[in-house]
Design the sequence.
């Protein structure tokens, strides 16, 4: 049952949660019970507190009649693994894969120990092999980040060190980071590359401290060619981890080993992060990923649809891209929903079908985007009052924001021109139409207007 449960979980949890907390669990099942064995107490606690509900729900979905009981425990081997040199110092995440230890045939084993320095070589990269440069769609929003990432892969430990990617959720930071890791390993299979979510780094460190293995822990990390740490905002306020990380980080940089980091915001703005870390992060290259623009959203939908193996007509891609402006993860989720819905009802993928499949999602979005909301956000943005927007005043510093607000209203809501005109102090629908045209024209020619418009759309849709 567990493999099916995992499939269910994949649909509701993100990659990072799956990799950090779910995949370390070992399942032992019979007809009545699924015993989940966690490799450490830390993981046990975490799963118990934060993900156990999801797990039980997934089991219920897979086995609606007589679902087996699910229990969670910590395995004995959590401690044993510490007694092995080198690999064991880094607990579960990086533990040597079991196959290379025991399960290989004697002949193969003899062969593998011949040339190389034995077990030392096989470390667990934790890389998702689907996250490559090939599967990464580039556009205005991430062009710089992608170009820099390729350079890092070309020249690890070079001048972009550390390489720091920041930006909102679901915009491809983790993907890009894995792409570099995968590329490094493709070029040099022996390369000691390790990806870790920062929470996992902290968990492993706490574990190492608890078992007096901190020296091995340090030695392991300092032996890497490239260290990829995701979402470092979680380091904030964990002083001891910062201290340890700072030393590891310095050692790696001094040895010209590549360090890649991501965060949901600019390093200097991560609360609780030590100043010396912030400033050191800035020594390499810090680069942002932005929310995808329309063309890129369409391209992403097309590419993902092809990967999922279903045909996505252009107009459906346009429809989804127009209505969902958030991040790539949401786009992907929407696409999966449309695909599943089409399969389930055995229908062709059409705009109507997409509307039906995404009904709840779109309704939720519409509810939050009201004309009032738009007016208030635009007024705040330009530091004027909503009353000014609705007034008859026609000075430029009021008239332009008013036009922007109208154009955004047209773009983001399904209100008609007369309805929008009404909401803006009882204006005629031709006034609204004029505003929409004017702003669309200015977006092409006036950089400032384009930027304001895009920022506002982002604020309103998030
Ligand atoms: P982040 O780490 O910024 O929160 P992720 O890297 O986890 O975002 O991306 C979320 C999902 O969206 C992943 O499935 C990823 O493959 C996909 N994704 C994000 N950006 C792109 C892109 N430019 N091209 C293709 N897929 C993308
Ligand atoms: Mg991420």
Sequence:
């Amino acid at each position: 049952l567990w493999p099916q449960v995992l499939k269910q979980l994949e649909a509701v949890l993100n990659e990072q949660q799956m990799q950090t907390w779910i995949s370390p669990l070992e399942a032992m099942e019979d007809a009545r019970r699924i015993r989940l064995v966690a490799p450490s107490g830390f993981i046990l606690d975490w799963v118990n507190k934060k993900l156990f509900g999801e797990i039980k729900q997934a089991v219920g979905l897979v086995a609606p009649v007589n679902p087996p009981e699910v229990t969670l425990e910590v395995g004995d081997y959590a401690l044993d693994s510490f007694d092995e040199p080198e690999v064991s110092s880094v607990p579960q995440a990086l533990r040597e894969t079991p196959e290379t230890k025991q399960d290989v045939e004697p002949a193969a084993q003899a062969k593998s120990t011949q040339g190389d320095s034995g077990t030392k070589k096989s470390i667990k990269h934790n890389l998702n092999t689907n996250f490559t440069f090939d599967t990464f769609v580039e556009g205005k929003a991430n062009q710089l980040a992608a170009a820099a990432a390729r350079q890092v892969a070309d020249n690890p430990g070079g001048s972009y060190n550390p390489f720091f990617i920041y930006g909102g959720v679901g915009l491809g930071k983790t993907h890009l980071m894995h792409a570099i890791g995968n590329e490094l390993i493709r070029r040099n299979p022996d390369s000691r590359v390790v990806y870790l979510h920062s929470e996992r780094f902290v968990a492993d460190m706490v574990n190492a401290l608890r078992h007096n293995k901190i020296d091995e822990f340090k030695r392991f990390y300092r032996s890497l060619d490239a260290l990829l740490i995701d979402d470092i905002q979680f380091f904030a306020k964990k002083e001891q981890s910062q201290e340890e990380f700072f030393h590891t980080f310095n050692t790696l940089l001094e040895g010209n080993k590549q360090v890649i980091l991501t965060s949901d915001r600019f390093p200097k703005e991560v609360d609780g992060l030590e100043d010396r870390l912030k400033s050191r992060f800035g020594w390499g290259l810090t680069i942002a990923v932005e929310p995808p623009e329309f063309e890129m959203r369409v391209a992403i939908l097309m590419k993902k649809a092809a990967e999922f193996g279903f045909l996505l007509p252009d107009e459906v891609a346009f429809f989804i891209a127009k209505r969902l402006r958030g991040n790539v993860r949401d786009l992907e989720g929407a696409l999966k929903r449309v695909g599943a819905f089409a399969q389930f009802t055995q229908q062709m993928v059409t705009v109507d079908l997409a509307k039906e499949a995404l009904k709840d999602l779109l309704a939720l979005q519409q509810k939050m985007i009201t004309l009032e909301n738009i007016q208030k956000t635009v007024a705040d943005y330009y530091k004027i009052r909503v009353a000014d927007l609705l007034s008859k005043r026609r000075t430029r510093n009021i008239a332009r924001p008013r036009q922007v607000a109208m154009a955004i209203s047209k773009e983001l809501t399904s209100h008609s021109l007369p309805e929008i005109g009404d909401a803006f102090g009882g204006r005629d629908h031709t006034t609204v139409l004029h505003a929409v045209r004017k702003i669309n024209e200015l977006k092409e020619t006036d950089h400032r207007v384009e930027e304001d418009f895009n920022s506002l759309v982002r604020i309103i849709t998030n």
Summary: The chain has four domains: 2-75, 121-288, 294-366, 369-461. The first strand starts at residue 26 and ends at 29. Residues 38 and 44 are 5 Å apart (CA to CA).
